[in-house]
Amino acid sequence: MLSSSLLLFIEQCMNGLQFGIMLFLITAGLTLVVGIMNFVNLAQGSLFMLGAFVTAWVAANSGNYYLAVLVAIAAVALLGILMEVLVVYRFYHRQHLDQVLATFGIILILNELARILWGAQGLSVTLPPELNRSIELLPGLTYPVFRFAFIIFGLTTAGLLYLLISRTRVGMLIRAGASDRDMVRGLGINVNLLFALVFGLGAALAGLAGSLSVPIMSASVGMGEPVLMLGFVVIVLGGIGSIRGAFWAALLVGLVDTLGRSYATTLLSLFLGSKAGASLGPSLAGMVIYILMAAVLAVRPEGLFKAKAS
Amino acid sequence: MTRFKPSLVPLGLLLLLSAIPLGAYIFDAVFALTLATRILILATAAVGLNLVLGYGGMLSLCHSAFVGIGAYVVGIGAYHATNDGLDWMTNGFIQIVAVLVFSTLTAAIIGVISLRTRGIYFLMITMAFGQTLYLAAVGADLYGGDDGMTIYQPSVFAGFALQGRYVLYIVAAIVFSLSVFIVDRLARSRFGLVLQAAKMNEPRVRALGYDPVRVRLVAFVISGAMAGLAGFLLANYTEFVSPAEFNWVRSGDLVIMVVLGGLGLNLGPLFGAAFLLVVEDLAPGITTHWPIIVGLLVLLVALFAPRGLGSLLTGEARND
Predict the structure, then answer these.
(1) CB pairs under 8 A between A and B
(2) Does B200 lie at the interface with A, CB-CB under 8 angstroms?
(3) What's the confidence (pLDDT) of residue A194?
(4) Closest approach of A36 to chain B, Cα-based (Å)
């Protein structure tokens, strides 16, 4: 039998891992889009939000969570490609400022559309019985099946993504695009198609992250933006355009953020006394991750993993 | 820099700014006066941002954090004066010094770290830092946490309280004019020329012996202080502060104001702020889902008028 504080620590590490995997699903597409197309997509958080809403809505109407996840991924991927074909492609050669404005406008539109379609209250989802229980991972440590499945499924997706990027022809083109997109164009590759594909893939992954997050955080308007910020921290830490960097940075951010939130109050109480610790802890906990980013930037401005594209 | 003769610009601005309270008084249109005050306050922050974004080419997405710092200085001062009897904390002079110290210090820290990078990195990092301060405000339970707090005592300057519609308008107009004057002087100074040159050709500026990063840092800090002052006025104007002041969406609004008015046009933010705030004022009357209107507008501006609304009329090129 392990001590209860150690079990709690392991459980928080698992939660951190699960949060990190969710962040990876959002940032994988984001970092590719930034790295290959040199495009800042602030609306990635909104795609995440729509994934969550569509999942909750379909699950409520069909009673089938698995079906809802599939529908959400397809819907968000389609919306992503639509966004790319209608708006985004016009901005690849424009300044970052114009890209920020355009995607800022898209955020306002998508957030308000979600409010019109599903209301300001937010939607939650009931899990199927086989996911809605706990299993005993270690003696004395029970863990929700859903979060465990989240981790396994997320890691599998990351693995498949890795195979797609490193072993297939499309992946080769994507990597080539990240290091020198003009050369790829020069070799006669249909870059427009490739870009739309990458954008759709990124959107699908963000939608998947939203689908998997509904049972944990429930869908609400504006849920995407805090996640987008953390996504940016992940990209900055991992290096723009690097999937591998995004993966490790996402796990790091997930772990540090989750552990920071659970232990900041305790740690601060040790140094400052319990009263000051209890009042400062929660506000500092959310900041831990940004302090980490500042520290990394001070030492390595180009991120922990050297980006392939500059 | 502007299309008008330089000597006529201050005169025109003075006439415009004094016509509004006169008009409001004659036509008894107080709402116009309060809207104009709000426009002037946010335009002050946007003029500061223009120094960084328009002249310096740095896309900062954390300027609402400086506005928030200025607003919270007033809020925290009023809180302790009301609850703990610390009346000196509503002293306007002390508050202004505190606003300047905190906003310049914060801007210096954020600037030193963020300016190690450029382009996409810079905008993502400033956005993340803005979020840090937002989270700090949300976590500050003593000062209302997520809900914010009402300000029961305005800033007092030697017995003169910063309240009342006309007083606030006049003070906002003076601060705005001062900030326009300062940025105008800076832009023409050697410092401003180096800042603009570094945006166009950094290696050449380095070769001339200037340190572009240092020049950018100074611009960032000055700009942060101006946004802080705007926050100081905003808190006295709304008599309320909340973490929403820090929210990155507010930073986005400031960027939109600068772009709408025309990048690097010193008076541009006034027109950008006026346009955006009038739309935000009118749109809720058309539909409750007015953010869609603003969103579409922003998207259309990004698509068709990235050089500002003025360029739609004149077809003039942005000077970058």
Answers:
(1) 132
(2) no
(3) 86
(4) 13
